[in-house]
Every structure is written in structure tokens, then in C-alpha cells.
Design a protein that fits this description.
This protein is an alpha+beta fold. Helix content is about 30%, strand content about 35%. The chain is built from 3 helices and 9 strands; from the N terminus they run αααβββββββββ. A 5-stranded antiparallel beta sheet has the order 1-2-3-8-9, covered by helices on one side. It has a 4-stranded mixed beta sheet with strand order 5-4-6-7, with no helix packed on it. The longest helix has about 40 residues. It is globular and about 75 Å long.
Amino acid sequence: MISSTLLFLLFGMTVIDADLAMQKKLEVKALLELANHNATFAVDPVLKTEGIIELIEEEALERFALRMRENGGYRQEGGFFLPSPASITTDPVAFTAKYVDFWHWQRDLHLSLKYTGDSLRIEQAEWGEETHPSGGHITFHLTDEKGKELTIAPKKMIGPSLIAVAYVRDRPFSPLLPDHAFPVVSIEEVKH
């Protein structure tokens, strides 16, 4: 009787924890999308007058960090966003970004990323040879600190774009359960 009660309790905790992990993933995705949208307004005004939409990357990343702080309570420190007590996650969120410029957005891009526990970095960015007038596709391959390989769903670019990738490794509802660990991607076209 006690063993079946414990089993039922463990099952219930697992269901609650899975629901909590999904909520975290959706919330981090929304935060990333909002921050990335804000970042893509950092357009070079001189080039814009010449009809070239080019991102000022330093300003874009500052705008990204500002929106993460305003919407999620996160403070940037190096390649991580550190949560406040009000944030959806309890542990730092690893982050990296890649800008796809005016000259490359119509080509396919394969990004290989590595999360080491201390950083999330782009190890390799391989461009396809062929151009697609409607925009290139981005494929992602992420390896975590244990060597586990994760594939993120491909995305499509419709213009020069800022790609933001976050890797969340967060404590579970119960210490009996594994950490929540998942990548989140946002692709935003640079605003005209």
C-alpha cells in the first residue's frame, strides 16, 4: 500500500515537473522573442538611407539585454542572463547570438553550437552555396556538456536577421527529478 502511494506521488511530481518545464520553455521563448524584436531596431541610419539594412551589433545586444531585464528581470553577465527572484528560471541562462547580414540572408546556414556549462558558443557556422530569393534556412545542432546532441527545428530567414539562442539548465520541482534542460531559438528580421 505504501509503495503504491509513493509510486503515485512520484508520478504526480513527475507530471507537475514536466508541466513546469514546459511553462519555463514557453516563457523563455517569449522573453527571447521580445528581446530579439527590440534588438533588431538597431539599424545603421547611414546605410539605411542608401537602401541597405545593416544591424549595429553592439547596440542590438544592448537593446536585447535591456528588454530581458525589463520583461524577465534578467541581468546580463558575460554570456549568461542571471535571473532575479521574480524570473521564470532560477539558474543563469546561457546565451549567444549571430547576425546574418544583407549579403548572406538568402543562403542556408548550419550552426553547430556547444554548451559547456560555462558558456554557450557557436563552434561552426557553415554557409550553403545556393541562394534562395525567399530566404535561406537555418539548421541547428547543439551539443551539451555531457556530449548529448540536440537538434533544434530549422528556421527560415526572410531578410537580414539576428539569431538568438539560449540554453536553459534549471533546477527541477523536486531534487529526485533531473534538471530542466532545453535550447530556445529566436530569429528576427532586422527592422526596416
